[in-house]
Design brief:
Blueprint: H1 6-11, H2 20-47, H3 50-76, H4 91-120, H5 127-155, H6 158-187, H7 192-219, H8 225-241, E1 245-254, E2 257-266, H9 272-290, E3 294-302, H10 306-310
Parallel strand pairs: 2-3
Antiparallel strand pairs: 1-2
Length: 312
């Protein structure tokens, strides 16, 4: 199997419950997130810093998003049913988009709050305490975020990876706060505090928009160029074995699954039972190349009568 799809194979090696590992990972994320929120709220209470407030506000959104992500992981693991014959995996994209939207909202609010505080007087005291608490939060989030992103990629779970990226965003937020607090502490110039809060908010905004864009691409079934290339490579090789042709190959991704459709044109003299058997082998070749989670489906057509039936 090519290197680019080894990750997909590993992701689906988690027995018959691909999201089982994701649930405990997300519980860890939620537990750590609550601890971080308490630390940041305390730091804000003793300092009154706008920058620390921005960090705490981002943590509130993070915990809400993790709660929704937990539900999404559970829901996406439910088996296909009559109303959802393709399963429930697409909620992964909705969850990531929801988290991205929350990130954007909190970024806008942080900018508003920082400007308001700047205009009506800046309060920033006991910055040493706030600084050390923020440094601790930064280090913890760096470790947790890296772990979540790596786990999400291994599982091929957009929900877990998105949460990891959100945690890393939280760590960058904390880093911006640290810089702002240091500058304020060292220089005594308090406007550094709201300025750093605004800078942090702009970084958060970029992260949220990027996450929403990725979720939108998934919901709109945007084709993956790498997957498309592999599918065409397999088809070109396999159909040649049977003197067949193909067209209308397309795919879409939903969570850990890739759904592939293709039209196969067989010589007119090929019996239907043989064409079906050969098509099945071609489907298996596509699924084997893409790895577990791939589902290929072929539509059989006679080569000679194809133009008449389709009007071209």
């Amino acid at each position: 199997m090519p290197e680019d799809f080894q990750g997909l194979e590993k992701a689906d090696s988690c027995a018959h419950h691909p999201h089982a590992g994701g649930l405990w990972v997300m519980w860890i994320s939620l537990s750590v997130g609550i601890v971080m929120l308490v630390m940041k709220c305390y730091a804000y209470a003793v300092t009154g810093s706008s920058a620390i407030f921005s960090d705490a506000a981002e943590s509130v959104v993070h915990n809400v998003a993790v709660g929704f992500a937990l539900f999404s992981l559970w829901y996406s693991s439910q088996p296909a049913d009559r109303n959802h014959p393709y399963g429930h995996d697409k909620i992964d994209f909705f969850s990531a988009g929801f988290e991205g939207a929350l990130i954007v909202l909190v970024a806008v609010y942080i900018v508003y709050a920082a400007i308001t505080r700047w205009m009506h007087g800046i309060a920033a005291d006991n910055l040493g305490v706030g600084l050390w608490l923020t440094i601790a939060a930064f280090l913890i989030n760096c470790v947790l975020g890296g772990f979540l992103v790596a786990r999400g990629r291994k599982m091929n779970s957009l929900v877990v990876e998105a949460n990891g990226r959100h945690v890393l965003t939280d760590s960058w937020t904390s880093l911006g706060v640290i810089i702002g607090l240091l500058l304020t502490w060292l220089t005594g110039w308090k406007p550094f505090d709201p300025i750093s809060a605004i800078a942090v908010a702009l970084g958060i905004l970029w992260s949220g928009v990027s996450l929403m864009r990725r979720a939108f691409r998934g919901l709109m079934d945007e084709a993956d160029p790498m997957v498309d290339r592999v599918i065409h490579e397999v088809l070109t090789t396999e159909v040649g074995k049977y003197g067949a042709q193909f067209h209308a190959a397309k795919h879409r991704r939903a969570g850990r699954h890739i759904w592939v459709e293709v039209h196969l044109l067989f010589p007119d003299e090929t019996p239907i039972w043989l064409a079906h058997a050969q098509a099945t082998e071609i489907e298996k070749a596509i699924e084997a190349r893409l790895g577990p989670g791939a589902n290929a489906s072929a539509h059989l057509e006679p080569a000679h009568d194809h133009a008449r039936v389709h009007g071209s």
